[in-house]
Amino acid sequence: MENKKIINFLNELKEKMNSCDEFAFWDYLNKSEELIKELTEEINGEIEENVVIKGKLFLGKNSLIKAGTRIEGNVFIGENCVIGPNAFLRSGVILAGNNHIGLSEVKNSIILNNSNIPHFNYVGDSVIGENVNLGAGTKIANLRFDNENVMVSLNGKKTDSKRRKLGALIGNNVKTGINSMINCGAIIKKNSFIEPGKLFK
User: How far is CA 27 from the centre of its chain?
Assistant: First the structure.
């Protein structure tokens, strides 16, 4: 039942991503954190040898977790995903399906269909839309230097997310170039391209 709630939640988020570029995306992270606590373990895909799993895992049909991958905490992986080799997924990760997570670290984030985090990326406390590709070395910050709550520029106003750790909202069809940097609380509108080596605030 709880896994069905996650699927319904993902459908709701997809509709939101399609309807607008800017919204209080941290509300969806807050909700996903509650849903993932009640995750029911279910393995429908393949797990290679030398994979470490410490927590409850939902693994969808035709999904593969390759050797060297480490999963800590409860994680939901939809259908037709490829994880690893040597990926690091931390608690709260939700992958909608058809995702590739390579030699990268993902923590407490929602990644919608057909999006890839393939090469030396860090993604924390973020919401990533459909058909997104992060170039090699793209990093998303999720913590301010002063440890204060992350402020977000939402519809022209600075808004307090009330979260000390918050990454970015990345819209559908976004591409980032290699070694690009995305600041905490950033909102990247759909169909955007971030040039290699650039800092997006």
Answer: 14
List the catalytic residues.
119
- Reported pTM: 0.97
d(CA 95, CA 148): 29
Tell the CATH superfamily of the 2-200 domain: Hexapeptide repeat proteins (2.160.10.10)
Q: Is 155 left (phi over 0), alpha (psi -120 to 50) or beta?
A: left
Q: With both helix axes pointing from N to C terminus, report the angle between 2-19 and 25-37 in degrees, rounded to the nearest 10.
A: 170
Contacts of 133 (CB under 8 A, 6+ apart): 115, 116, 118, 174, 175, 176
Tokens, residue 183: 């600041």
Low-confidence ranges of the chain (pLDDT < 70): 1
- Could you tell me which of 83, 115, 82 has the C-alpha nearest to residue 96? 115
**CA dist list (Å): 138 to 1, 28, 125, 196, 199:** 36, 23, 15, 9, 10
Cβ 153 vs Cβ 139: under 8 Å = no
Domain ranges of the chain: 2-200
16-54, pLDDT tens digit by residue? 999 999 999 999 999 999 999 999 999 999 999 999 999
Q: How far from 148 is each of 33, 58, 105, 132, 165, CA to CA, in Å?
A: 20, 34, 23, 29, 9
